[in-house]
Amino acid sequence: MVNELVTHLEEKARQLRVAIVKTLHASQSGHTGGSLSAIDMVTALYFHKMRHNPADPSWEGRDRFVLCKGHAAPAQYVALAEAGYFPREDLMMLRRLGSHLQGHPDSKGTPGVEVCTGSLGQGLSMAVGMALGLRLDQRDNRVYALLGDGELQEGQVWEAAMAAAHYKTDNLCAMVDANGLQIDGDVTKVMNVNPIADKFRAFGWQTLEIDGHDMAAILAALDQAETLKGGPTVIVARTVKGKGVSFFENKAAYHGVTPSDEELPRALECLGEQCNL
């Protein structure tokens, strides 16, 4: 059963990568590299780990997801559409005037989005607040926050990390999409954030390190995080920016560049999909 689940989620992630590429090509605006690097983790959350209800996005029993690296909104949008929060056809309206799918997540307009994010550094603070609020209400809901490694250059992240450990928010799990690149290039050259795991550990977090594209490892880490008590857990996931499309991979240039008309069929071929446009 475990192998079947992993295979199912791997195929789901492939399909969502296809959707990301098509969505970003249609919009000709948005962030390709970080959406593709995060999608395996997003897939594991939305289609296995998190409790949520597309028919009732405000259901009190739901777990919360905060996309701290809000520019990777296409990764969340394709998952929400696949889960049934809104029609898949809406994805083709990404970043269009009047669309509910803005360039960064908007909790006022998009079903399934918990908070507005995109100003880097603020997401973890909101996730900590959610975790504390749920605990005050004596609820067992969990909060998942997905950060980028470049985002860790923001001081507010570490204020939130300190507060999360101090208040022992063991209903909070942060995930770091550590793809090593940001808009200006190599994270270690722009402002080195390594060693990430050691930093979180020093702040009092329980720390797990995985390959962020190994679905079995992602599931095991999420399961383990749920059992760890007494404080928050962070999963540091080593990933590849642009994962799945060979000519996007490990290239900072594709941080905020979308597939061109010429690149679309090649990208889809990399993902095992034919271009029917």
From TrEMBL:
Keywords: Thiamine pyrophosphate. Its cofactor is thiamine diphosphate. The keyword RNA-binding does not apply. The keyword Cell division does not apply. Coiled coil: none annotated. Residues 13-272 form the Transketolase N-terminal domain. InterPro entries: THDP-binding (IPR029061), Transketolase_N (IPR005474). PANTHER family: TRANSKETOLASE N-TERMINAL SECTION-RELATED (PTHR47514). Belongs to the transketolase family. This is Transketolase. It comes from Geomobilimonas luticola.
